[in-house]
Structures are given as structure tokens and as C-alpha cells.
Design brief:
mainly alpha, 2 strands, two-stranded antiparallel ribbon, Myb/SANT-like domain-containing protein, elongated
């Protein structure tokens, strides 16, 4: 008899890449349906993941396994958010990758070994994780895309901007020059990563 299992079962459930992918795929659907009213999923969503994994892979997956793995994903997400919040790290939105130079990588991995899987490597299922465990993400009926937002709402409180005003030109110049320096820094960071 297996440790902590019911009689007659001796095999532990193991998460594999295909089951992880299915787990995230289902929970994204559930979040979009509105079954994640706060920071947790409804029991029906957790049970659905376990049932679909059993049906597709013919392995016994319980709600407890799903809840434990959801905790693991939340811990990974917390690490990702912590790293992205620290200085010295860049973000490649196309590759879904936290970037840093070799010196930063070596020093941070010495003090925080758990950061290593998320540095200078594409983060698998980043967008799905954002929906499943991200706290600031709207779900269900509250989720809106740019297409859903009516920009021409006839807002009477809006004030037209006088673009010929000297103060406006000064602000535009400051904003555009700060954008240029950000681009120069990004290009410099990319060249360091390439080396």
C-alpha cells in the first residue's frame, strides 16, 4: 500500500508537461467564465481540472493534487513578480523572459537559488499564469479588452488640448526625450545579453 494513499493504490500522481499545460488551459477557461471571483477558484473549477486530467491521461488526479499544484504555481508567480520588481533586471515581453547580465545572474543566484529557473530563460505559460494566479487581472464579466472599451463615449468632462501652447511643447519634448533614453537603455541591455 502506498504512503498516504487509499488501499490498493501505490502510485503517486506526478505533474508532467502535458498535465501542467492542461491544468493551466482549463483554469484559464474557468477564470474567463468568472469562476475565479477573488484570488481563488471555485471548487467546481478545481474538480473539473482533476476530472479532465483523469479522462485524458487515465491517471488518478484528485482535487487535492490540483490545489497543491495551484499553490506551487502561485509560489512561482510570486518569485517572478519579486524578480521583475528588483532593479538590474530587464523584461522581454516577446520572449516572456527576465533578462540580466552575467554578473547580476551570478550574484543573485548565489543568494537566491530559487530565482535561477526564471532568469535568462523563456517562462513557459507566462500569459496563462497571469490569468490563473495574477492578482490584478480582471476575470469573468469584468474582463474587457481594448475592443470592448468605447473610446468615443461623448465624455463632457474632457478638455481639448491646445497643442500650439509653449508649455505643451515643452512637456512633449521632455516626454519624447525620456522615451528615447529608455530605448537606448533597452538596446544597451540587449547587447549585454547577446554578449
Amino acid at each position: 500500500m502506498g504512503k498516504g494513499n487509499k488501499e490498493g493504490t501505490s502510485k503517486q500522481f506526478r505533474w508532467t508537461k502535458p498535465t501542467e499545460h492542461l491544468f493551466l488551459e482549463i483554469l484559464v477557461e474557468e477564470a474567463q467564465k468568472g469562476n475565479k471571483p477573488s484570488n481563488t477558484f471555485k471548487a467546481v473549477s478545481i474538480n473539473r481540472v482533476a476530472e479532465v486530467i483523469f479522462e485524458r491521461f487515465q491517471v488518478q488526479c484528485d482535487a487535492k493534487h490540483v490545489e497543491n499544484y495551484l499553490r506551487t504555481i502561485k509560489n512561482q508567480w510570486q518569485i517572478i513578480c519579486t524578480i521583475r520588481g528588483e532593479s538590474g533586471f530587464g523584461w522581454d515581453d516577446y520572449m516572456k523572459m527576465i533578462m540580466c547580465d552575467r554578473a547580476t545572474y551570478d550574484s543573485i543566484v548565489m543568494t537566491h537559488k530559487k530565482y535561477e529557473p526564471f532568469l535568462n530563460k523563456s517562462i513557459d505559460h507566462y500569459d496563462e499564469m497571469t490569468l490563473v494566479v495574477g492578482k490584478d487581472m480582471a476575470t469573468g464579466s469584468f474582463a474587457r479588452t481594448f475592443v470592448d472599451i468605447d473610446l468615443d463615449d461623448g465624455n463632457q468632462d474632457s478638455v481639448p488640448i491646445d497643442c500650439d501652447n509653449e508649455e505643451t511643447k515643452e512637456v512633449i519634448t521632455k516626454v519624447s526625450s525620456s522615451g528615447t533614453s529608455k530605448r537606448k537603455r533597452k538596446i544597451a541591455q540587449e547587447s549585454v545579453v547577446d554578449e
